[in-house]
Design a protein that fits this description.
The chain is an alpha+beta fold and about 525 residues long. It has helices at about 5-10, 80-85, 90-95, 100-115, 125-130, 135-140, 145-160, 160-170, 205, 235-245, 265-270, 285-290, 325-345, 350-355, 370-380, 385-395, 405-430, 440-450, 475-485, and strands at about 15-20, 30-40, 45-55, 60-65, 75-80, 180-190, 210-220, 225-230, 250-255, 275-280, 300, 305-315, 320-325, 360-365, 450-455.
């Protein structure tokens, strides 16, 4: 069937012909220019069609315009939060490159960064957020499909010795005088295919199986040092010795909770002279009564609260440090009296025996120090509790989403990197007084909305505040970027504030007579 007459009669350039491509498409009638003629012996000259220069669409000639759009990455990517994480993790990447292949080190850092920028992110969404943030610029050519990430995390767990090499670099950097806090936390894991998921001491409350994760925290540098995963049914006392030996901790002052008794590491303490301990005793420990440490003989100086103390030296060059916090004692007494009122079972003898323990804590240590130093060590130990708070409530890592033992080990190593960087960001932001008017989550949300073009990015160049390439940047976000050194303040003079004039008065309303 030829080209309809109404199509051929549409006004178009000279020396052209309309060709019917035979498709039910808006580009069906192509307009092609005449390129010449073809002469064959014994035949009449025939025209030769050239390139397509347009189409007849809806009864109108439409010339061929620009080329079609191609699939490409966005020109503007989220910059603020990714840049903040990258600025606090350069030395970590350097340590990873000393242990892992560059491709593996970059993939670890990429996943860890995305876990910080988007807390609670799942594996199948890593690739999506990688392509829309500057993570793609800082760590290019990293493939993050769901299967690729799952396989990589499993291989990472199967090569757990590599992870321990990274931990060793951090442990070797610890001085013998540093205080190392060790504590653990439970994490929900209901997998049926690994031996780590077990009922723990808190399973009767949560109703599910758990795994146990133990962290070592350098109180002096205020950073996590290493971590290890244990089965949920292994108590802290049994995991204590394994953790010390497995991570080859040979120096520092180990500050633990009551669940980590020093009796578990007697041989390690006698073998290494640069490792010491400080552990609280249970209130029913006989050494408390035998040494009469609850008869306090002094008040701590330089402490805001009213704290009584006593220091006693016992056998084998060990020391007992006892403290009584008056405010804490009042709270414990009030809680105890509330329980008595509810149950109506007041026992004067029991009350008299318990009241002397309210607000008290007794430490056993092999270090001779002042009571003030011992108290500050106890207060600093609570920093590791903040780390677990960041771990669960800031990064939303309260449950595992992997199944096998190797996958859990690999996942928790990346979670350790994320927790380490998060601690650095929070610590620096607190020093800059950024949390006086906003929370950590609000700060990261403001930075997430800051965009910059990829083509304008230059390595080691800090953009200025008045740079024209900022997009979607509020005053609050810019102040955060300048405070963290991710943007330079403007060199333009700040205009003087206008003088406040007379307050406008509302004219009197004149109504009808």
């Amino acid at each position: 069937m030829g080209v309809p007459t109404e199509i051929r009669q549409v006004k178009r350039p000279r020396n052209t012909v309309v060709v019917d491509r035979g498709e039910n498409h808006f580009l069906r009638y192509a307009v092609r220019e005449r390129a010449g003629t073809v002469c064959k012996p014994g035949h009449n000259p025939q025209p030769r069609n050239g390139r397509t220069i347009g189409h007849i669409i809806n009864g109108t000639y439409v010339p061929v315009g620009p080329t079609r759009m191609t699939k490409k990455s966005p020109e503007w990517l989220s910059y603020g939060s990714s840049a903040l994480v990258e600025s606090q993790s350069r030395d970590i990447l350097k340590d990873l490159l000393n242990v892992f292949h560059p491709c593996d080190a970059y993939k670890i850092m990429t996943i860890a960064m995305l876990k910080i920028v988007h807390p609670g992110i799942t594996h199948h969404r890593l690739s999506q957020h990688y392509n829309r943030t500057f993570t793609k610029v800082f760590y290019p050519n990293v493939f993050l499909s769901s299967n690729t990430v799952s396989n990589f995390i499993q291989f990472l767990g199967q090569n757990i010795e590599k992870c321990k090499e990274f931990y060793k670099i951090r442990i070797d950097a610890v001085c013998s005088t540093h205080h190392i806090a060790i504590d653990g936390t439970l994490k929900q894991n209901t997998s049926k295919v690994n031996s780590l998921s077990s009922y723990s001491r808190k399973s009767h409350i949560s109703g599910c199986k758990n795994i146990s994760i133990i962290y070592a925290y350098d109180v002096n540098t205020m950073e996590p040092i290493c971590a290890q995963v244990f089965a949920g049914n292994i108590i802290d006392a049994k995991a204590y010795r394994n953790f010390i030996i497995s991570n080859n901790i040979k120096k520092g002052v180990i500050i633990t909770d009551k669940g980590f008794p020093p009796s578990q590491i007697k041989d390690i303490l006698s073998k290494y002279e640069n490792i010491h301990f400080m552990t609280p005793l249970k209130r029913n420990d006989k050494r408390i009564i035998n040494n009469n440490v609850l008869c306090f003989d002094g008040i701590l100086s330089g402490v805001e609260r009213r704290v009584l103390y006593k220091k006693v030296k016992i056998n084998n060059n060990l020391f007992l440090y006892s403290f009584r916090d008056a405010s804490r004692a009042q709270k414990e007494e009030n809680n105890y009296l509330d329980k008595i009122r509810k149950n109506s079972n007041y026992d004067k003898k029991e009350y008299t025996q318990k009241i002397k323990y309210f607000g008290t804590i007794v430490f056993l240590s092999d270090i001779d120090m002042t009571p003030e130093d011992a108290w500050h060590c106890y207060e600093d130990r609570w920093m590791i509790e903040l780390v677990f708070d960041y771990y669960k409530n800031v990064l939303f890592l309260y449950e595992t989403r992997v199944q096998s033992e190797a996958s859990i080990w690999g996942e928790e190593f990346i979670n350790f990197i994320s927790t380490l960087i998060t601690c650095r960001i929070i610590r620096k932001s607190e020093k800059l007084n950024l949390f006086e008017k906003m929370t950590y989550g609000e700060m990261m949300e403001d930075l997430e909305h800051v965009l910059r073009p990829v083509e304008k990015y230059k390595i080691n160049e800090i953009p200025a505040e008045d740079d024209e390439n900022w997009m979607n940047t509020t005053d609050a976000a810019m102040k955060i970027l300048i405070a963290h050194g991710l943007a330079k303040p403007s060199v333009l003079p700040i205009p003087e504030p206008k003088k406040r004039g007379r307050r406008k008065t509302r004219p009197d309303f004149v109504g009808p007579k």
